[in-house]
Design a protein that fits this description.
Lactase-phlorizin hydrolase-like, transmembrane helix, 605 residues, 3-stranded mixed beta sheet, globular, 21 strands
Length: 605
């Protein structure tokens, strides 16, 4: 326990138990370390916890295996073919906003290197590819007054190329690159954007819908709202606006989503047969102290403000009771007469409720939560009333906010099942970063995917969660928003010092593709699985397209074509030689004597 430390008196506490020296009774309170040490003694060491043990089995037959990117992060071509400016074009060109002064002006140049991206996807063996549409590339000023056909043609070609490669397109309408022209008139604060987004969605459903069966309206509205309009770390970069701003922005995003869903449902679903939903991001939260009820409540608050803010209206018609209560109480504490959280009208509740076809989830890590009293502060964080930290024993990654916590994904999936009536769930992003020197043998990413995907399998097999798909973030090392190119999430390394920006597979490519090929994790006790032979073998050859007989093919396809052509050439030459030899032998055969022939004929009966 904490005690008198000689020269230092009671300044430092070394004990497993805290002693309150201000109380004459000197009460002892166990610290977390006391419980931890108790468990070590009880277990006589460090046995592997049940939720960390591997499980073996397969996902359902039609399971979706995907990898993802976003338009601003990979496309480049920021002023090509009539594209308008986006808020991220402006934000990245503002000094001091992005690490290393990086921009998406060129990014991975996917706008001009589509074939390389398709070749990368084929190497991973995904069944789907999640990409987003650049709103200003289609509608330069954000409205339908002018539709940029060149931009539309790019996405049509991408969809056609994916289908030709037997890869299904999975399209996100909005992944943060709002047309700057719309931001100039208020952006997501101005409710006129609801109609603008509806019109934009209509254009895409009409032009791409016949070939696209999976749609996402918004990617991570929490990030759009909090990082873009509270913290200012993302475009448009607001951190000094009214404390009602995040809730107004969120309110308009939810209504915009509902309108887009209804456009599809009313005009296109019958003929196109696709699915439309929103993708939300959420950490899982554990109590900092598992022996404090208030820490459990804080952990619940974290998840509610990730999900209850967005998912609850879409699945149930209105904000979750906990979110409404938290914002109201903090608003009243600040002297306001009503909540800063807007209310939906009865008509809006009816229109928003049920606007989903599946549950889109982005998840990366978990946190530890504990409550904090923010007093009368009027701020999003004060409404939530929670501070989050990471356990220092959790494995670090290339991002300060991301610690490896595989267990949290299964628990979050189970939470969604229980809270929202077990909807079909597609994990639309999950991945891990690195920074510093490039190492193509990315063992930490292989470990991350193995552990996290195995937790998904547990949720499916043991918890009966209706999980129907998994998406690895990301396909390529790309512009990671405010940190630029300093953090890399990609399965493929993109060499930015080479003007051709070649895509080079990391070790995680073959590992992830093997999981895809096996549709899960084969039981090793049944012997080596034929599809896992090459799990730890990977090629570091960059992917480049080459011209072959007038066609632009990947190096792999060109090599196949060359070998086939060469084989046909050998067959043709061999045939020609055989014919020549045969002709030569016939010519050299000695002619028979005519007299002899006559005599022989005379002897015939």
């Amino acid at each position: 326990m904490d005690s008198f430390q000689f020269l230092y008196g009671y300044l430092f506490g070394y004990g497993l138990h805290h002693v309150d020296f201000n109380n004459p009774n000197r009460p002892r309170t166990p610290k977390f370390s006391a419980h931890f040490y108790y468990n070590i003694i009880k277990d006589n060491g460090f046995p592997l916890p049940e939720d960390e043990k591997m499980i073996y089995g397969e996902f359902k037959k039609d399971f979706i295996w995907s990898s993802a990117t976003a338009s601003y992060q990979i496309e480049g071509a920021w002023r090509e073919d009539g594209k308008g400016l986006s808020i991220w074009d402006k934000f990245t060109h503002t000094p001091g906003k992005i690490s290393e002064h990086d921009t998406g002006d060129v990014a991975c140049n996917s706008y001009n290197r589509m074939e390389d991206d398709i070749a990368a996807l084929k190497k991973v063996k995904v069944s789907h590819y999640r990409f987003s549409i650049s709103w200003p590339r289609i509608l330069p000023d954000g409205t339908t007054k002018y539709i940029n056909q060149a931009g539309l043609n790019y996405y049509k070609k991408l969809v056609d190329s994916l289908i030709a490669a037997n890869i299904n397109p999975q399209v996100t309408l909005y992944h943060w690159d709002l047309p700057q022209a719309l931001q100039d008139v208020g952006g997501w604060e101005n409710e006129t954007i609801i109609q603008r987004f509806r019109d934009y969605a209509d254009v895409l459903f009409q032009n791409l819908g016949p070939k696209v069966k999976l749609w996402i309206t918004f990617n991570e509205p929490f990030i759009i709202t909090v990082l873009g309009h509270v913290q200012g770390a993302h475009a448009p970069g607001f951190n000094d606006r009214p404390d009602t701003l995040p809730y107004i922005v969120g309110h308009n995003i939810i209504r915009s989503h509902a309108e887009a869903w209804h456009v599809y449902n009313d005009k296109y679903r019958a003929s196109q047969g696709g699915l439309v939903s929103i993708t939300v991001n959420s950490d899982w939260a554990e109590p900092r102290n598992p022996y404090k009820q208030e820490d459990y409540e804080a952990a619940r608050n974290v998840v509610e403000f990730y999900l209850g803010w967005w998912v609850h209206p879409i699945f149930n018609g209105d904000y979750s009771p906990l979110v409404k209560k938290s914002v109201l109480e903090q608003s009243l504490a600040g002297g306001l007469t009503k909540s800063r959280l807007p209310e939906f009208t009865p008509e809006e509740i009816k229109r928003i409720n049920g606007t989903y076809d599946y549950f889109g989830l982005n998840h990366y890590c978990s946190v530890l939560a504990f409550p904090v009293d923010f007093g009368t502060t009027q701020h999003f964080e004060a409404d939530r009333g929670v501070v989050v930290i990471s356990d220092r024993t959790w494995l670090e990654t290339g991002s300060v906010w991301l610690r490896m916590t595989p267990f949290g994904l299964r628990r979050l999936l189970k939470f969604i099942k229980d809270e929202y009536r077990n909807p079909p769930i597609i994990i639309t992003e999950n991945g891990v970063s690195e920074n510093g020197p490039v190492d193509l043998n990315d063992v930490h990413r292989k470990y991350y995917y193995e552990q996290y995907i195995n937790q998904v399998l547990k949720a499916y097999l043991l918890d009966n969660v209706n999980i129907i798909g998994y998406t690895a973030w990301s396909l390529l090392d790309n512009l990671e928003w405010a940190v630029g190119y300093t953090e890399r999430f990609g399965l493929f390394y993109v060499n930015r010092s080479d003007p051709d920006l070649p895509r080079t597979p990391k070790a995680s490519v073959s590992f992830y593709s093997s999981i895809i090929s096996c549709n899960g994790f084969p039981d090793p006790t049944t012997g080596p699985h034929e599809l896992l032979i090459n799990v730890f073998m990977f090629s570091t050859e960059p992917i480049n397209n080459v011209n072959f007989l007038g066609m632009k093919l990947s190096a792999e396809d060109a090599a196949t074509g060359f070998n086939a052509t060469f084989a046909l050439l050998i067959i043709a030459v061999t045939g020609a030689i055989c014919l020549s030899i045969g002709f030569f032998l016939v010519k050299k055969r000695p002619k028979k004597n005519k007299k002899t022939d006559n005599v022989e004929l005379d002897k015939r009966p």
